[in-house]
């Protein structure tokens, strides 16, 4: 049959059909990653920190009196107006404790959303990474902002802070945690352990907001609350008060990070059981638009 004309057409059609990929939906990360500027909409965080997007985000000026945005090539210095205002307040605090200001790492992409590299969160313009490196200068060139690296404040064995950690770090973190707009702050556990040791009995309520997490030894991660009236923004659950059961989190759940987390106790030998296949949890990088709130389509389509 291949010799007949209709046979040739059929063979050709089959070849074309098999060569074409099944039309897979593009990832949300690729769509949001391609956006170069904010949507022309009223500012609004949409969805959750790790599954959402941001309408009407504002660009943090690359350099201000008390800050510089780093890694400008990533174009991730966009946030909700509340975040931009917070960074300005934090920069002023940094100056008050003797630093030149702060180096600001990633906030969000121009329209938020999942990213093709890095963070699972930072999707709605209410997360920002602040470098542990105290700025020496606030006149870094674009090239210097690409090449300069932050410093780690954690020892190589991950159990304590190292000589890079100073009282100024503690003061800056305390100022950040006391800011009413802040929901929680992620730091490497040794930093919180150190802060627990030095906090006085009368001045430690804010410690609840300082949360230990893996990584976070070269930067701390500030997460703001959903701004008042932001109806499409979902507050994180459990709240920090629920997590620390009303306490300050200076307890065994904190010590776990520098003990069992690093040295998991050997499990008692159990009879071998066939492992049940678990469905793999999809990461933010694999999300399609169907995984995000519907309003995110409007954010993407907006001018
Ligand atoms: Zn972060």
TrEMBL record:
Signal peptide: 1-24
Domain of life: Bacteria
Assigned keywords, A-Z: Hydrolase, Metal-binding, Metalloprotease, Periplasm, Protease, Signal, Zinc
Keyword Transcription regulation: no
InterPro entries: Peptidase_M74, Zn_M74/Hedgehog-like
Gene3D superfamilies: 3.30.1380.10
Residues covered by region (Disordered): 265-289
One Pfam match: Peptidase_M74
Protein name: Penicillin-insensitive murein endopeptidase
